[in-house]
Write a structure and sequence with these properties.
Blueprint lengths: L1 H13 L6 H16 L4 E10 L5 E12 L3 E3 L1 H11 L2 H19 L7 E5 L10 H11 L7 E6 H6 L1 H12 L4 E7 L6 H6 L4 E4 L1 H7 L4 H12 L3 E5 L4 H10 L3 E3 L9 H8 L1
Parallel strand pairs: 2-4, 4-5, 5-6, 6-7, 7-8, 8-9
Antiparallel strand pairs: 1-2, 1-9, 2-3
Helix pairs in contact: 1-2, 2-3
The structure holds ligand C2E and magnesium ion (MG) (3 copies).
One magnesium ion binds next to strand 6.
Organism: Sphaerochaeta globosa (strain ATCC BAA-1886 / DSM 22777 / Buddy) (Spirochaeta sp. (strain Buddy))
Protein name: Diguanylate cyclase/phosphodiesterase
């Protein structure tokens, strides 16, 4: 398995991007180290708020790596390498286990609807993966409805049949799905209608763009509401954006205006 990871990593080195070969190797080493020592995988939590009540209804779990040599790494520095090497599969499982533990230990009686975990296309290695994720949740003995998964549209369209199967399987256990970063890529209306997404998250860029012309966001919101989706606006930073979202009827917000992603302790203080 390590060999196949190495082989794929070679492909990474030939890619022309901002990272030097050495930096790339260092980050991949840090990812391997954090899989051996899961305490180096940190989870930050960003609350999502109900626009009408101003209450926290859920939260998104966001990964960071704390490496002994490289220090603190943000997703923009390591997620694409974790995906290209296949290491993301292990990191996703570590993160999910941590989220489940937090729910069991600290949030068992909390009104929070769910905490969502991001899935990459590379997480969908086989149809088995649904069972793997479920077994992590069941090991922690929490109700599976307390977990959500966020998937971007490009992932869905890349491996439609497998994603559809896994989504259906997990939805039957009351696990929630959100379509992430909506409005940044191709939108496939059929996929939106056929797949059991409960939530659609508008990307930050869509929210920002709508400030000068809200027509597109208004039309999309009306359509998605007709399909029964609950809408979440990402990247809301200003009062004006919040007002626009309220007017359009988007139900939930996640953004710096309310809260940045928080370390576990600060998050628990906020929701506890
Ligand atoms: P995402 O899933 O769309 O997550 C939202 C990102 O937007 C987060 O960045 C969050 O901190 C940022 N954000 C939220 N509100 C605001 C705002 O008001 N203004 C601005 N400027 N940014 C805001 P983060 O944590 O750096 O994560 C970036 C991306 O990395 C995520 O985008 C997701 O695609 C990926 N990612 C993060 N954690 C994981 C993970 O555990 N697994 C996988 N596969 N991907 C992850
Ligand atoms: Mg997300
Ligand atoms: Mg997003
Ligand atoms: Mg994103």
């Amino acid at each position: 398995e390590i060999r196949s990871v190495r082989k794929r990593a070679v492909f990474v080195y030939t890619k022309k991007d901002a990272l030097s070969q050495q930096q790339t190797m260092n980050i991949i080493s840090a990812l391997r180290a954090s899989i051996r020592n899961p305490e180096q995988v940190l989870v930050h939590y960003q609350p999502m708020y109900d626009v009408q009540t101003g209450r926290i209804v859920s939260a998104e779990a966001l990964m960071r790596i704390n490496d002994e040599h490289l220090g603190f790494l943000n997703p923009s520095q390591f997620i694409f390498l974790a995906e290209q090497t296949g290491l993301i599969v292990h990191l996703t499982q570590i993160l999910l286990a941590k989220v489940c533990t937090l729910i069991r230990q600290n949030l068992a009686k909390n009104a929070l609807e769910y905490i969502s975990v991001n899935l990459s296309g590379e997480d969908f290695t086989s149809r088995q993966m649904g069972q793997t994720l479920l077994s992590i949740i069941q090991q922690e003995n929490i109700p599976s409805r307390k977990i959500g998964f966020e998937i971007t549209e490009s992932v869905v369209l890349q491996s439609y049949d497998m994603v559809a199967d896994v989504m259906l399987e997990l939805s039957l256990k009351d696990i929630k799905f959100a379509l992430d970063d909506f409005g940044t890529g191709y939108s496939n209306l059929q996929a939106l209608m056929d797949l059991p997404y409960a939530y659609v998250k508008f990307d930050k860029s869509v929210i920002q763009g709508a400030m000068s012309n809200p027509t597109m966001l208004t039309l999309l919101s009306d359509m998605l509401h007709k399909l029964g989706k609950v809408l979440i606006a990402e990247g809301v930073e200003t009062e004006q954006q919040l007002e626009m979202i309220k007017k359009i009827g988007i139900e939930r917000v996640q953004g710096y205006y309310y809260s940045k992603p928080l370390e576990k302790e600060a998050f628990l203080e906020l929701v506890g």
